Amino acid sequence: MAQTLSVEIPEKEGISAFRFDFAGNGESEGQFEYGNYFREVDDLRSVIQHFNGANRMVAAILGHSKGGGVVLLYASKYHDIHTVVNASGHYDLKMGIEERLGKDFMDQIKKDGYLDVKNKKGGVEFRVTEESLVDRLNTNMHEACLKIDKECRVLTIHGTADQIIPVEDAFEFDKIIPNHKSEIVEGANHCYTKHQTELASIVVNFIKTSLQEGKGAPN
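^ that's the sequence the OP posted. Answer follows.
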């Protein structure tokens, strides 16, 4: 299961937020997939289309960790959302796999067809199948980010104390996304445990600025 993040936006800001978990994450049913990023992109597409059908304008999308990658991939594939927030997303999906799965992960997956990732108590945290691993390895965030429209304003937030995804990934996004801003939160871990207020302030200010400049609304 991926780590989840909740950004609390005060009602006084005049912004309504809808938060959901992808399959196998948080409170959602189903099985967490190590890869299958574009399946989650399509899930996000369905949510956006639902709100559009109800005459509710989706002004911005925000994703955390794997979700950060998903919202960037969404912006690269669809061009109807002009404000995107990537919180602690991975730039190179090949990096960190051995540290997470172990040195012999590929041999075990080839042998059994899957690998169970266990937590410190010995319980199974999630299962990595060969299909999901190959999908992850074939997902190129660099190429995808180059396809994001210049009119799409992208914010990347990352904590300096993130031990899951290194803060250097934020700097890589800053190099290639055309209309990009980065906010580095000093001392914040992957889930911004002690920096929730600062995180919410950064997100709200970015979205409000985007709306004021007329770039938050879909075409």
